[in-house]
Known about the structure:
By secondary structure, this protein is α/β, with parallel strands linked by helices. Helix content is about 55%, strand content about 15%. Residues about 5-40, about 100-105, about 155-160, about 230-245, about 490-495, about 595-610, about 650-665 and about 785-800 have low confidence and may be disordered.
Amino acid sequence: MRAAVRYLTAFLFFLLFALQPAHAFEIVDAQSHGQPVSLKADTLSLPDTNNAISPEAALNRMSQPGYQSGTLDPDGKQAWFYTPLINRIDNAAWVINVRNGLLRELDFYLYCQGGGLQPLSTPPLGVSSPTLASSYYLPINLPQNTECGFLQRVRATTLIPTKVFLLPASSAVQNSNLGTVLNLMMLGIIAGLIVYNFLLFISIRNASYLFYTLYGSLHFSMMVKLSLYRELFSGVSALFTDPKISLHILSAMTMIALILFTLSFMRPGIQTIRHNPKRQKLFTVIKTLITLCIVSLLMMVGFLAYVFTWPEGITNTKLFIHFYIVATSLTLIPLLSLAVALGGYRPAWVLFPAWTILVVGHIVPILGVLQFIDMQGWGRLVTTSVTAMEMIMLSMALGMHVKESMQGRERAQMARENAELMLGQRERFISTLSHEIRTPLHAMLGATCLLGRTDLSGKQQQYWQTAHYAAESMYALVDNLLDRIQFKNIQKMDKDTEFDPQRLLEALIQLLHHRAAEKDLELRLHTHNLPPCLIGKPVVLRRMLINLISNAIKNTEVGDISVSVAWKPEQSELHVVVEDTGRGMSEEQLAHIEARFNTGVEALYSQNASSGLGLPICFEMIRAAGGDLSLESRLGYGTKARFTLGMRLPTVSDPAEQAMPAASSHKNLTILVVDDAASNRMIASELLMSAGHKVSQAEDGEHAWELLQEQAFDVVFSDVRMPRMDGFQLLEKIRQQDALSELVVVLTSAHFDKEQRERLAAMGTTVLAKPYTPDELLACVHGVAPASAEQSQPVLSKVFADLQHRLGEETAAEIIMHYRQQLAEDIGRITHGASRQEVSDMRIAAHRIVSSSRALGLHENAEAAREIEVYGENDAEIDWEQFNELITHNLSLISLKNV
């Protein structure tokens, strides 16, 4: 309501200002400039609309006693003017100085008593003059104390009248053209600025430049229409030649363009003030000013629609309407600029003086026209000069405006990039830290597991339980951190794999059984309709159950914990319910439990210290995997957590495990296994030792060479790509030494190109491609049947099954642990090498991933690392931008959880 009253008051004030009467323009001015020239009477005027009155008739009519001047037509119709003069000094030599190039027609006659009308010649002015003259001087002779007078026939423009001055001949300066030169120079500056900003609009595509060009073009057109002869533009443009397009319409269009430019220019400043609570009052003022501008614009559009239909009799009314609209707009726009400038928008400080100068520069000549001040013929130059200055300052302000806008966008872009960079660095830091922590935790868990299988006393058993369960808790926390970082990409990183749900659930219950037994809690598992095999995300299922069961154990003091799992074939979903008899949660706690990393909620839920990660991560993980999690709880009665996870049944059953061939009956050999990946060395060593061979290990070529100098070996089984000394270099040194030249060398790698195969065949070296089966390994070492380089790759799941069958589950688990450790280390080396653009280190690390992954039958990891290893091998220069994208993508496909 208050806003409506405020706007209504402003509108009434606007109308009151609009109804103020306008001052009639004087068309002719006769001045003495301080010279002793007496004006016998005021200048008389006689309208001659139809050009039907002769000079003699005009003189006779205006010389009659008691003659009253007629009403002049402001639209530039023809009229006669007569100025009676009497010369009171002895000097009779005078000069008529005409300083107006805006008039269309001008004839002078000199009349003295006792003589007839004497026509005076009128040289051309403005651009019609070869000297660009802005004024000319007509020498005349005024007899002393004789009644004389000037008779003028004029067709002048509406706003600027004809200026005629009387000067003594001694002070007259002939052919003064300074005014015209300066005027044309100012017009040239304006035209240049219009073209310059239009070109900027074409290149930058900023709307403010377009509005500037529109406003400048209209303003320039209005000035040209006022400044130059009509005949110069005949046939060029109706804007200058059509008499219906008056200065009123042109100036109204200019004001519209000016308001559009102002609003587009001020928008960032207005938005800044709007969002600042301390400047709300200033924003209220700006809204009022904008409202007044819009009202002015609407009124102009309305009057513009009827301007062609108005009768000639109300021309003065049209002039009044035009005058108050322009005056109101020129008053509001500087005020709007000042308000925005005070609001802190720097370009507005340039805009405010620009329009203030424009307003003052237009008011001063008008005051000269109205005879309030003496401009001495320089009014037009003042107008063009201030207009040029205004256009220059507007262009400067516009440049500042666009620069600030571009800088703001750049700052926003930099802030977004910095935020993304910081987020990425944080996640990489947490991920790296988690991996580094998990490596010793694996050793700790493995050691405590082995320790738990030994004979321990009661006291030792307590110490073992404390250490083992603490290590398990720490391991779960680290996994939670990894899950929190990677839950958004879980669809990509955790591909659907085949698993036995019953076996997974039983192993998980067995893992957490001791923790529940510590608190005398019973942990029970109920399964219903579980198929022997499912395809889905077992990692998500395992992490969800670990978190939910751990929370249940932690918050239950008495009672039991029940885990129910059922397969729903109609929905292809696994339904899981974890229910406890613990302290439960209130409705308030339940309403806020989904808050991510909300440690406060976890603290309310538990009296014990908590990491505050479990339940929030469960919500994030299950949603990222496409499932759903819900909680039911009552304070003091326990909690029930339900979640569903999409799964599917395998379409084709896995083939039955084939019986493994018996170990070879060949004699036992002394074999040197050389590989920089510990998991690869362990796999090869365990397989060879299970066949009865004696095995030594070396981590690279240099270490192997040292061992070859110390003891004798029957076979060297070596990887190709290794740091310091690779397999090719080791082979060359062996062949170059006579004592070792007949030594059997088997080189293994994930890939061999044609040139490498031919080179090794010439050197009598056997090649074994990864992945290989135990039979292929033994056959190659024994020399019974060299492995074919072109044979197809075996079924990878069968490779791992063979490994378990030959070595047993415990040894296979140890191999997998080494693989996971080595994989984390190699991923770190690839990331580090990419940051320093060290291709060789990256390829060595990628090669180790390829070889060890294929040995375990992990095709996804091997293929992803293979692309990194061979990228850019045949290119003269590596495209690091594209390479980094490949590295980022492929490393996201290599998961430690695939094992």
